[in-house]
Structures are given as C-alpha cells and as structure tokens.
Amino acid sequence: MITTRPGYPRWHTASAQGPRSLNADAVGAYAAAGGPGIAFALADGVGDDPAAARAARTAAAAAARTPVHKGPVEAVLAAQRAVREQTLGDAVLVVAMPAAHGGYRIAWVGDARAYSWDGTTLGRLTTDHTLAEFFRARHQPVTPRMEHVVTTSVRTAQAHEIGTAETTSPGLLLTSDGVHKPLTAGGIRAVLARPGTGAAELVEAALARGGSDNATALYVEPLEVDSTTVRFPVAA
Questions:
Q1: Domain membership of residue 125 as a residue range
Q2: Distance between the two ends of the chain, CA-based, in angstroms?
Q3: What CATH number does the domain containing 158 carry?
Q4: What is the DSSP letter of 66?
Q5: Which part of the chain is the PPM-type phosphatase domain (predicted)?
Q6: What pLDDT digit, counting tens, does each position of 132-158 carry?
C-alpha cells in the first residue's frame, strides 16, 4: 500500500504471512491535526498465534497515536501499557517520530529495525536486542538460535532498556526480522536502489530468499512528493 498526503512524505507498507500459520506483524501510522508530521510504528508479535498478532496490532496502534512531543520512548511505554492491559501476548516494536529539525527520532525493543536511506546509502539505526548481540558484544561465541531470542520486548522492557537513535535523513525504512534476516543490508540496498521499488519489493525479495517468517516493511521515500491522500488504517 502506498500512502501520500500533501506536505507529508510518500510512504509504502507491505506485509506477507509467509509460511507461518498467521501474520503476527503490524504497522501503525498517525498524523495528528496540526502536528509536525507522521509517527510510524512497526511491531512483530512474539510467537505464531492469535495472542501474538493481537499484541502486535495493539502495540503498533498505541505507539503511533502517542503525541509526537512526548517522544518515541514514551510511545514504546504507551504500547507496553496497552499490551499489558488488553492482551496476553507480546511483541517487539520500533517507533519513528518526526524530529524538530527534520529526520526522525527512533526507539525500539527487540529485533525490529530502523534504517536511514537517502537514495544511495543505507544506514542501520538500531541494534538488535537479542541474545546473539548480547554475546557478540562481549566477544563470545554465538549460535544461530541466539539470533531469534530477544532480550527486550514490549511487555517486559524497563524504560532504561529501550533503545534510542536519531537520524537527519528524510528517508526511513522499518522492518520486521522476516525482511532483514533473509536480505541483509546488501540485499535491502540492492532492492531500494532500483527505481520505483519500495516496501512491496522488499517483502517479495525476502520471501524469495527463503524467508520463513512474517515479512513486513514500512518505507518512507527520501523525497517528498505532491499527490492525493489515500486512507490508511492506524494498524493493520
């Protein structure tokens, strides 16, 4: 799905169930009237069941609707409150909110990712909160299974454990691990470098590379364009 509004960046989102029994990924986007821009969120439910899917939808919606002036960390905490109150499931989450002087402020838990993209250079903004990264940072051996074990999540994270980053780039990419694990940075760059490509092509490429998970991408194009508005739900 491609969404545009006059004065806002053009952005795309795409999601595929892949070989899982259901799609437990979700995205959220919200622009408050008179606000500084669009807040984006992408959540990936922990597990392959209805509780995981509900947790992802709940987290993405609550995060995206958090007032921008409160910042992305508060958006993660708002998602946490909603998940704890409304679901039995859990999710990982990445949130991007407009920064005062352009670009985005980022917050995340788990292994959902954010990248900057200027049309040429892809920059990774997040570090996975996984057992693998924990041991890798300490120069200890890592097994493949550790890549899939998260050390923070929406339900469990303490405020000080929430990751933060900032970018001045107007181009932004949020992904679930069903996209960035099969593709890697080089694969993502190769897809986005092709003219006219975006979220749908990233998801298709991830599944074509043997992705075994739900695959979801939210892509904000580097340049603003003038176009018509296409209605998009807060979470899907």
A1: 2-221
A2: 11
A3: 3.60.40.10
A4: S
A5: 10-222
A6: 998 998 999 989 888 889 999 999 999
